[in-house]
């Protein structure tokens, strides 16, 4: 796929109906020969729209007006390129806990939670947040995670977590203002509710920082899993991670995780973590598939804002 096609596809498939500013911008970049040529000087993995737009926001550039964006991007390209080369998209969305909770509720507790691709570890606190599934509220903390749930009874209570650990190639630290600024820049411009959610979830994590280990989800998972306390159910989980992992490494990861004791929860794009049979996805925006120990259970929306149970 050409860079122009990546940007036009991002506009129509990902940003449409979700971020008018990024839809406009991605379409403009897809027709902007000068910016496309600059992007072409970067390694293929570093050309994505989310990375470019996040870096421009981080550096204080304009993302609302495509003409202003063009001028700013061309004038500031060396700084943009340096940031794009050194960073990766690491959006950490606590809202995804709202789609993990129904699966956790059905497993034996207490839990030792181990998240691979944890970013700053904000999904490691499903027991601290509050949830609203329609009229049904669970928990009383902050942030309150709203989720439209269909085909399932909402979970009755919060899980009990006795150990939490994250593994990431580049763990982020929510107590570091620079890391928090990057997480903020990765949130799409109009999503003020997600920005507020990031602050509230970061406060939860900062109050009791998780064990975050720098490492690879294949090579370093068994050693971290071995640190989980006896007497708790080990749950290895991941959400929106495997699209960043090459196919051969994804297969190696599945083999490693299947060899561990406990349970495995995946919330991933079915194009990167395949299942033999799946029902038609609900219409609209992109969907992940939630699976327990390899069995698909539900379609979920990208930021945890909806779950459609089918199992
Ligand atoms: C899009 S973020 C998702 C973060 C978090 N799971 C969430 O749902 O909010 C993907 C994360 O996976 C991490 N990652 C990518 N490849 C990895 C690997 N091979 N081993 C460990 N972490 C990896 C990235 O560094 C990034 O922090």
TrEMBL record:
Highest taxon above the source species: Bacteria
InterPro entries assigned to the protein according to its UniProt record, in alphabetical order: UCP012608
Source organism of this protein record: Micromonospora sicca
Pfam family, one: DUF2332
Protein's UniProt name: DUF2332 domain-containing protein
């Amino acid at each position: 796929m050409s860079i122009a096609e990546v940007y036009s596809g991002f506009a129509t498939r990902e940003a449409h109906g979700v971020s008018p500013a990024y839809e406009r911008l991605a379409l403009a970049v897809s027709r902007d020969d000068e910016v496309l040529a600059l992007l072409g000087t970067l390694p293929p993995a570093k050309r994505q729209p989310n990375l470019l737009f996040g870096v421009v926001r981080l550096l204080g550039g304009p993302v609302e007006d495509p003409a202003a964006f063009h001028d700013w991007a061309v004038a500031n390209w060396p700084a943009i390129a340096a940031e794009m080369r050194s960073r990766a998209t690491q959006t950490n969305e606590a809202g995804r806990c709202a789609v993990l909770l129904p699966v956790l509720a059905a497993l034996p507790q207490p839990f030792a939670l181990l998240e691979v691709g944890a970013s700053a570890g904000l999904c490691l606190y499903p027991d601290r947040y509050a949830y609203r599934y329609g009229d049904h509220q669970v928990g009383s903390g902050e942030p309150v995670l709203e989720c439209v749930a269909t085909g399932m009874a909402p979970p009755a209570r919060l899980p009990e977590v006795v150990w939490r650990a994250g593994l990431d190639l580049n763990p982020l630290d929510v107590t570091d203002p620079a890391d928090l600024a990057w997480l903020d820049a990765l949130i799409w411009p109009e999503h003020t509710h997600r920005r507020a959610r990031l602050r509230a979830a970061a406060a939860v994590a900062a109050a009791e920082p998780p064990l975050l280990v720098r490492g690879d989800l294949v090579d370093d998972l068994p050693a971290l899993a071995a640190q989980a306390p006896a007497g708790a159910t080990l749950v290895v989980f991941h959400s929106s991670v495997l699209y960043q992992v090459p196919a051969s490494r994804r297969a190696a990861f599945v083999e490693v995780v299947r060899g561990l004791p406990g349970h495995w929860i995946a919330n991933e794009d079915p194009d990167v973590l395949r299942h033999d049979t799946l029902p038609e996805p609900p219409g609209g925006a992109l969907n992940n598939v939630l699976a327990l120990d390899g069995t698909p259970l539900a379609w979920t929306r990208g930021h945890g804002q909806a779950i459609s149970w089918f199992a």
